[in-house]
Amino acid sequence: MYDASNNFLNVHEWAYGATEVVHILSLAVAIGFITLIDLRLLGFDVADASSARLQRATAVGSLIGLVVAITTGFMVFATDPVRYFNHPTMRFKLATLLVAIIFNYSIHVRVARGDFPLAIRRVVASVSLLLWLTIVFSGIFYSFT
Amino acid sequence: MLESLGRSIQDLRLLTAVRESMLVYPILLSTHLACIATFGGLILVTNLRLLDWFLTDIPATDLIRALRPWKQGGLAIMLTAGVLLGGSKAAEYLTNPYFQIKLVLLACIGVHGLLFRRSVYRRRESPVPRTAHFAGALSLMLWIAVVSMGRWIAYYDAPSPAEQVAVEMVK
After folding, report:
1. How many domains, chain B?
2. A3-27 pLDDT, tens per residue?
3. CA distance A12 to chain B (A)
């Protein structure tokens, strides 16, 4: 049986804080890169670069950011798994995260790289921003609800 | 001194309202974090370009100019939310060493922006690579440190009144 009281992050407070810092920094990398593409998809000028160019330049970076953010998120989750798993706000966050990842790697990437009408590009960028911001908001609201 | 200053700041009606609201405080905190994720990410984009790590076929000057309004707008929202959050607990925050370091780092970021204004950020032609690399690396380190200190504020245990008395007696 897993005993969270022996978890490294629970024993060492500095490690808990360091994990949270890495979580925030890595989610900023991933969401920041995606925001750059979304600005372009919304129709704003990003130094004459196409959304395909921006997507290619940031793909590896945002993937690394996502993997690190999910890993550190899971490390924090493991300090008190029962409470996190049973919390409705955390369940909502995890469900939204799943939707956002699927959306990003199916529709978002395809639209950024392809040749789609502006209306579709705008809808995809708005959905993308909304999903990622919802995840950030529910991450904070989790500790207040 | 800092604590009484903080107390008079946080007693302002607006900041008292922020502190006592069940909803406003988490909304401000989420907004602060959302700005770090989106507009902070754009700061990262600028710095990586200055470092010549990606998008090297796009002139750094053009990228900086295109992203500037977004970063400025984002910074304004981030600072507004941050001031309201910090101000609502000013007595606690002003005496928190991590918050103090964060303020110093933010001041350094301001100085950094002014220092490289002519040579990098507002330069018409491409900046000298060495200067651009230096400015980008420094900015990246300062922002990472600011975000880290922001999270670390929560990890400071202020000495209890009894401990303070003990410290005074030892002195």
Report:
1. 1
2. 888 888 888 889 999 999 999 999 9
3. 12
The answer to whether the CB atoms of B37 and A27 lie below 8 A apart is yes
> Rounded distance, CA A77 to CA A88, Å?
14
Q: Give the ipTM of the model, two decimals please.
A: 0.92
Which amino acid type is present at position A126?
S
CA distance A117 to chain B (A): 22
Which of B44, B55, B144 lies at the smallest CB-CB distance from A32? B44
Pick the residue from chain B with its C-alpha nearest to A14. Answer: B155
Q: What is the DSSP string of B11-48?
A: TSHHHHHHHH-TTHHHHHHHHHHHHHHHHHHHHHHHHH
Q: What's this model's pTM, rounded to 2 decimal places?
A: 0.92
Is A17 in contact with B34 (Cβ distance < 8 A)?
Answer: no
The per-residue pLDDT for range A77-119, each reduced to its tens digit, is 999 999 999 999 999 999 999 999 999 999 999 999 999 999 9
